[in-house]
Specification:
single chain; about 400 residues; mainly beta; four-stranded antiparallel sheet; 2 helices; 33 strands
């Protein structure tokens, strides 16, 4: 083949390649023009799509645009039902069963009959512990599978767990008044703590499983005194004792290295082994409480029992009050995302923005609604023998 022929062939190939490239470019340009025309015709708004699939925490969630065909979800009981946000799924404890359903479509992902006479549910991360208070059985599960089911020698008083599945079990004791046993998710007993100072009424384990705190009641000069005893898990030794204000304790919870202590008439935080008051004893009458996904406490209280003038406070783990909202009406239940709290009354649910106090949402209900659960920008209610997802009307 002559050099002229080779040059002609190379020229032909270059021309074919250029024609192909131009053809692709024209196809892309035409496609873009068609898309832009369609968007113009239908006044397509990209930001509206973003808002539709973004919850009020700013997180992308495809479930926001999914119709829940299985809602309302029917329950096997209308009494003593507990619903809880467990890793953005809905955990449902009834007197006979425990079920985890998908919050988008109410499909049941995990369920079992627990067979407990007095079941209590605690959860952290993907783990749940259900125990039979006053009996000897408890079990650890994830949102999709059983980890173990265990029977101990004594009667269980209360339990606490970490996000890694380590469980602290407080029970009666044959040797002392009470004892605490700490088990890993593989059921290895890493600590047994005997307690003779009084009776345990609440317990909390730190998320690194290095410390466990318990609220203990004893009598002093005919008065009931509640103290928090903090133990080193590895050594089984008490490292600090903190006396709480008078009153019944509603919740004891580790949040980082601090311990939230919520009473019926007070709120405080134990920091560095010292009690710091947030609301002085006698200045509040706590109605109900919950925690945000970040572990901040949200508590509703009045100045006296059954007050219709209430305050809803968002409290950081260090005890700083981040926000206070005023609310008129009797509060039945609350549930919060990171920036909105849903407040259940006898005739509706109000969604209030923490930062501004703005009532962003209003949902009409009746007195049959017993509890409310907020997951992201979606609100769920337990009503009689069902759980339903609510239609939200913004003000």
């Amino acid at each position: 083949m002559s050099s002229n022929q080779r040059e002609i062939q190379r020229s032909d190939r270059r021309a074919q390649k250029e024609r192909k490239t131009k053809r692709i470019i024209w196809i892309i340009l035409i496609s873009l023009i068609v898309i832009l025309a369609i968007m113009k015709i239908f006044e397509f708004n990209v930001n509206s799509v973003k808002e539709r699939f973004t919850d009020d925490d700013g997180n992308f969630s495809i479930s926001e645009g999914v119709e829940g065909s299985n809602f309302p979800y029917n329950l096997d009981s209308s009494e003593n039902v507990v619903i809880k946000n467990i890793n953005n799924k809905i955990g449902i404890l009834t007197p006979t069963t425990f079920t985890v359903i998908n919050s988008a479509d109410a499909s049941a992902e995990y369920s079992f009959d627990h067979g407990y006479s007095n079941p209590v549910l605690e959860s952290e991360g993907i783990y749940t512990v259900i125990y039979d208070r006053g009996q000897s059985k408890y079990r650890l599960d994830t949102t999709s599978d059983s980890v173990y089911s265990e029977t101990i020698d004594n009667s269980i008083l209360c339990c606490s767990l970490t996000k890694g599945g380590t469980v602290a079990v407080a029970s009666t004791s044959e040797k002392k008044l009470c004892e605490i046993n700490v088990f890993t998710r593989s059921l290895k007993n890493i600590s047994t703590i005997e307690i003779s100072e009084g009776y345990i009424i609440d317990i909390a384990i730190s998320d690194d499983a290095k410390k466990v705190a318990c609220a203990i009641v004893n009598s002093e000069n005919a008065n009931l005194i509640t103290s928090v005893y903090i133990y080193d898990v590895s050594k089984g030794e008490c490292i600090k004792t903190v006396e709480l204000p008078q009153g019944s304790i509603a919740d004891l919870k580790y949040s980082g290295s601090n311990i939230i202590t919520l009473g019926d008439t007070y709120l405080g935080v134990i920091k560095g082994g010292e009690y710091k008051s947030v609301y002085e004893q006698g200045t509040i009458s706590a109605t109900t409480y919950c925690y945000t996904p970040a572990g901040e406490l949200v508590v509703a209280f009045g100045s006296y029992s059954n007050s219709t003038e209430n305050t809803i406070a968002l409290v950081k783990p260090n005890g700083r009050v981040k926000s206070e909202l005023t609310f008129n009406g009797i509060i039945k239940d609350i549930s919060a995302s990171s920036n909105i709290v849903s407040v259940l009354t006898g005739n509706g649910i109000s969604g209030i923005v923490f930062s501004s106090g703005e009532v962003k949402e209003n949902i009409e209900t009746d007195d049959s609604v017993k509890s409310v659960l907020r997951i992201g920008s979606t609100v769920y209610v337990q009503k009689q023998s069902l759980i339903d997802r609510c239609d939200i009307n913004a003000d």
